[in-house]
Fold each of these.
Amino acid sequence: MAGAWIGRRAGMIELEGITKVFPGVKSLDSVDFEARSGEVHALLGENGAGKSTLIKTIAGAYIPEEGTIRFDGEERSWSSPGESKDAGIHVIYQEFVLFPELSVAENIFIGEAPKTRFGTISYATMYSRASDILDRLGHSLDPRALVREISIADQQMVEIAKALVGEVKLLVLDEPTALLSEREANLLFECVMRLREDGVCIIYISHRLEEIFRIADRVTVLKDGKLAGVRQVSQMDRDQLVEMMVGRELTDVFPPKVLPGKDTAPVLSVRNLRAPPLVRDVSFDLYPGEVAGLAGLVGAGRSAVAHALFGSLARTDGAVMLAGESFNNPSPREAIDRGFGFLTEDRKAEGLMLLLDISVNVTAPAIHEFSTGVGMNRTAEIQAAQDEIQRFRIAVPSPLGDVSKLSGGNQQKILFGRWSRACHRMLILDEPTRGVDVGAKVEIYEIIRKLADEGAGILVISSELLEVVGLCTRVLVMREGRISGEVTGDAVSETSIMRLATVSAAA
Amino acid sequence: MSEPASKSTALVPVKRLALPAAMLALVGFAAVLQPSFLSPSNLQDILTQAAPLGIVVLGQAFVVLVRGLDLSVASLMATVAVIATAFNATDDAMIPVIFAVAIGFSALVGLTNGLLVTKRNVSPFLATLAIMIVLQGLRFYYTQGAPAGSLPSGFRFLGTGRIAGIPVNMIAFAVLFVVLGWLLHKSAFGRKVYITGGNPVSADLVGIRSDRVTILCYVICSVMAGIAGLFLVGFVGTVDNWVGRGYELDSIVAVVIGGVALSGGTGTLWGAASGALILILLFNIVIILGLPVQAQLIIKGIIIIFAAALFARARAQ
């Protein structure tokens, strides 16, 4: 099976002392990295740890300030991604680079379509070669199908197939399973194994630890731009791996869980909520003081549930009670006025007003509170923002500072200030720690705990299972627009959640 | 004045000295070319010319702040002028009535623009272009191409008169500037304008009805254009089908020169008004230099390019 087009050598890629600086941030600080041919090498780290920078350095998209790159035994310094590609490095980013209106084969051979002797594209050759490549991946897919008509998993295969048109020695997969079902992920793993047997060096990035244990040979962990360690996967357990990632023991990351009082009435009660196509039938209760999780794969409808509850997505059906009163035809305004806050997933697109200062960002849901007959009471607004800055220890010089210049963690804390100030009953937190460094994460977890202790019901939506497991006493799992199950107490684990997220709960 | 120099109202850090400096430079340049430029009568003339454009610009700024633009302002000005003369009134007591009708009509036009943009998702460019053409058609239909009718003599005073040496229309501009300045920079509504313009999605998610805010901005813009039309017809003295011609683009240019980004959410009313004055000063300099009037167009084009390039660079930093 192994073709002559692959070199079988150790140390396919070797980085030494790589430092990459962005204005104000050292994204990589003297990092060493090495991966061999015929190896699946996992690259692990929290968001912001430097994984993407490392990948882009390997691919030639970034040029490091310091350090050397050896590829396939030669010292190289790429000046563009094209050069590294010609040398046999292929990176598949999370966002696919596919042309939806072209066929599978055209996408696979994009830019290097086989030609006839008249210089036109030879479709016959292209289709047959595309079939060969897909066969080698063990994947049956019609090369004539349009890319927009095939599934996400198939699109991923097309991305991988693109790498095999030329000679690939190093393949980088950046969170390849983020959008896949369990069955689809299994097909992907088989394909990765085949490439490994062919001697390809595979760098595999994933947040899902069980995947690492399943397919990776070795793992390199980055933390805050530095190398945290390189290990044989077989010689580690899950907790050790997590500790390496976060740089402290797990018990120090998450505050202790607290069960909500038993006799309280739910703050939010949802029955048969529908907002097609994403929300098909969702029922649950949320209690004051509770930190509950809403888990599921990307696309399962988690954020849509939040928007449908908050009033920013139209419902077609369902009965919702907020603090014992009907909440059936809501608008965001009414939700906020009744103490229901929603910290949205994408803080730049749906959260912050980047052109405005911190104080305005904090008081945005409560403008009327600061409006007097002669205009906005700026003094009171600035004081309110100052209070939140102190309460959540936000590292900013002044409430009049630019919100756009803050770090992800501080921006997120500004939003916590905004919502916890305006809404005391309940909060939905959609990906509360996305793009935030580890230190800020720990602080945000403490904030969440504190808000629940103050009596708010909190629903956490997160793709990071570790976070859901660490924070929540109860987790609702969604699959294809429905709640497929619920786990509570000690049953809350990554495995139990993933099972509900990916297979039918009916069985 | 409600210019946002004080720290507490400045929502957006602006390079505040750039616009006054540009104005001073232009005035200095003009005075060197022709010392009589600084004579009171010439300055009065300039302000009288600047006021109607300034009033339109105040409204246009609101629309641009919420990521829109209004191409119908000039057509509306002419239509309002036709409405004003249609009364054929001679008694000055009719002036308030004429104002009320004109402003009411303008508000309806603004409402239509706003509804098209928010509820039907028509792009501001197309919506206001269409309304501009519809207004033009209505006007031509009514006047049959030859507008007639007369205005109470008091209109002449509004357009060209002076109180204590200050042009009346400039006083009107100043009053509107203060009122709208308060609205934009001090009131809760103004805050909603900035939030909506800066991030409409976030605005809705913090409970601001961004559609309403946007519609109100279009109404403000049209009402300002209507008022400007009345002052301009008073200035010109007779009505024709093209009162205010060119003001749609001039007002947008002025707003952009004044630092209000077409992408919305940033800029001040002070800046927009300065932009209007800078534009008028430039036109004046063209005349002083003895260049043909057509040169105004070339200069206008070059300024837009310069202003746009400058802001693009400022944003990139």
Amino acid sequence: MSNKLVVGIADMCVSKDPSAILITYSLGSCIGVSIYDPVVKVGGLLHLMLPESKIAPDKAEKNPCMFADTGVPLLFKEAYKYGADKKRIIIKIAGGAQVMDASGFFNIGKRNYMALRKIFWKNDVLINKEDIGGNVNRTMRLEIGTGRVCLKVSDRGEIEL
Amino acid sequence: MKDIRTIAKDIKELPPLPEVAQKVFSLLHDSKSNVQDLVKVIQLDQAMTANILKLCNSAYFGLTRKISSLQEALVLLGHKKLHEIIMTDNSSKYYKKAGLGYNLEKGEIWKHSVACALLSQILVRKTGLPEDPFLFNAALLHDIGKVILSTYVKTEYDQIIRLVKEQQYPFLQAEKEIIGIDHAELGARIAEEWNFPGALVEAIAQHHVPDTENYISCIVHLCNLMTIMMGIGTGYGLADYGKDAVMKKLGLKEKHLESCMVELWHELQKAEEMLKC
């Protein structure tokens, strides 16, 4: 029996239960960040909403998962508690969509993506797989037992990342 | 293409908006009309009274003591909030049915509508833009056309999506091309049928393509886009154009949108009762 754990908007979950499936629905301009250590079989999923916490530092303190710059460090720290090792962690990201002509004001998806790249680059880790952008909506799922990450994309159906 | 007359018949068959909602509109129109009249109309309906009191006592309003009468609600929350609660309670039944055709789970269009209505108030409050008595209602009811169109979209779904996927049509335009009418236009016709004030009819009609001179349309346009970007009732909603001209006209920047989205997330955590109603 699998154990489905739903990750809400601006929420995260870390698990080492091999029967756990972490799932997050309806990623629009938000980005889902999945991390997984295949040796200790620990994984986590974060659903971040906005790039930088400086827009609302008090709110970021209450819920760090809302922003890329506060959510990602927290995700990694939680996974380390369960024995994950930075060198082994596999990172997969999906989401960051936007409206059709998001040149300026409405490009939150793109800015979320740029913020993530900057954080990973500064911390010397690589994004292993990604499915970013477009004007689609995505559901993202991480299986803790296998490390498999699957997406349901509104215009492509179910795919493995 | 569908026969528009069939859809027009569907509008006539939609249960009318209750008298109390009509009363709210006349109150918003005419500051001299008496809010006590409204309370009297509601009191005749026990179920509605109970529901409204439940909403008033929900975590969202954060009242320190439990209220047990509409009079108390009026005193403690003020008539603006009471109007919003009444409209929320009266609109939910329409939205409950819609969704499937738009590739959304049951209840998602309702959640999207409540989120838009809350966001309209947050946006005005946080950016110092002028308040408008019809704004909450326009944001709450902007997708009312989907209630009827959902069935037709479901039948023609593959054709509509083909236009969106293969020819990069915005969803609204694909809807219009395949069905002959889009949900914004249809929503405006419903609003007319229900004798909504002109400003509200226009805002519903224009929520995807706002006239920058129409203030309510502009705000509803932004609230719709922001909630869709946040993943609330998204479906194919990102196949749409965001209007930069609206941002410029209202003097808003990206940071305003972002901080309003943060606030909305926090308000939604407390709005469980509203989303259930």
